[in-house]
Design goal:
The chain is α/β, with parallel strands linked by helices. The protein contains eleven helices and 15 strands. The strands form three sheets. Strands 1, 2, 3, 4, 5, 6, 8 and 9 form an eight-stranded antiparallel sheet that branches. The longest helix has 17 residues. It is globular and about 70 Å long. The termini are far apart.
Length: 354
């Protein structure tokens, strides 16, 4: 039932739709949304007196996408050391104050340099196995022993120091529901997750996409059609694709914007503008990757057909500029020939402890 409301008109629409559900027992809650905030989370093992945080996980999508649906990376790539220390400090203090025994997960948002706490959950999170694998710390096993009476000090836990990256990516069931628009938001829609590990963030992201069965292309054409609010964020992404030898196909508004920044692209019509159009290109296998952020209420035409047709024709689609940026980093690493498979145990042997 969650919705990000941008103005009064959207608020009216939402309240009208929710009016049947609202009651004294089910109130309407209004919160302040931190637009374009970086989201992060920390899993802790606590014994009621102290807490240990193996690693901080940074979300790749901006705040507003459900944590279960966002791609995440360990260690963080755009969070400062000071912010990481703040997150670890807040997590430990809250765990102690709440006298948590076992596992705890806290989600954070970093907005204009300030670390905000979104929610604290005194329970295991779906990220625990991922943190455990990346850091080589069996969190569930240790937490269980603590719940049975042991203390943190019994385990002599140390902070892992490693040079590899782990990227979690969500797996979605949209191919089973062809009429559902696969846009991500505050409500969780994923039904699973995968982990990619490599010596760089870009390659770990590439591997995570590969594990979802829709791998990132290393050549071909990229369809870019972006909402006005996202256009400034797509310039570097488009430039990266051009430098890597990809062809860019863009809708009229996006094409004009890219041209104003010296980036050439091939024009394509939207469905309501005539033929051949976006759907024709997708159907004919002429597009290898779709980058489409929803136009939303600013547009009188629904662009969900772009995302639905990408799913129908088994073409990887990206709906956030943050993920698009990560994709270019991954493709660049893959093109550089750095791809290699390494056993998890080997990653673990390279970890040092402090």
């Amino acid at each position: 039932g969650m919705k990000i409301v941008l103005d009064e008109e959207m608020l009216r629409q939402y309240v009208k739709a929710a009016s049947k559900e609202v009651s004294p027992d089910r109130p309407l809650l209004i919160d302040k949304f931190l637009e374009d905030a970086i989201e992060a989370e920390a899993d802790a093992i606590a014994d009621g007196r102290d807490a240990f945080v193996p690693a901080v996980m940074q979300h790749i999508e901006y705040a507003g996408i459900h944590s279960g649906d966002s791609a995440c990376v360990i260690p963080p790539v755009i969070i400062t050391d000071e912010q990481i220390k703040t997150i670890e400090d807040y997590t430990r203090r809250i765990a102690i104050e709440m006298k948590v025994v076992g596992l705890m997960n806290i989600q954070y948002a970093i907005y204009e340099g300030v670390v905000y706490i979104l929610e604290a959950n005194p329970r295991a999170s779906r990220t625990v196995p991922l943190v455990s694998k990346v850091c080589n710390i069996p969190m569930a096993k240790i937490a269980t022993e603590i719940m049975l009476g042991k203390k943190l000090t019994d385990f002599n836990l140390k902070k892992p120091q490693f040079s590899h990256f782990g990227v979690k990516e969500a797996v979605f069931p949209f191919n089973m529901f062809p009429d559902v628009d696969p846009v991500l938001g505050p409500e969780m829609r994923s039904t699973g997750e995968v982990l990619g590990m490599a010596g760089s963030f870009g390659l770990a992201f590439f591997k995570s996409q590969e594990a979802t069965k829709l791998k990132l292309p290393t050549e071909g054409k990229v369809l870019i059609t972006i909402a006005d609010r996202d256009k400034d964020r797509i310039v570097d992404v488009a430039r990266n694709f051009t430098e890597m030898g990809f062809g860019i196909v863009a809708t009229t508004g996006t094409q004009k914007f890219l041209a104003s920044h010296g980036i050439a692209s091939e024009a394509v019509l939207k469905v309501h503008e005539g033929r051949p159009n976006i759907v024709d290109l997708l159907k004919n296998g002429e597009i290898n990757l779709v980058i489409n952020t929803p136009a939303g209420k600013q547009s009188e035409f629904d662009d969900s057909y772009i995302r639905k047709n990408a799913i129908k024709h088994n073409i990887l689609y990206i709906t956030t500029t943050a993920a698009a940026r990560a994709a270019t980093a991954g493709i660049k690493e893959r093109l550089n020939g750095n791809y290699k498979v390494k056993p998890l145990q080997e990653y673990h042997r390279e970890i040092s402890w402090k």
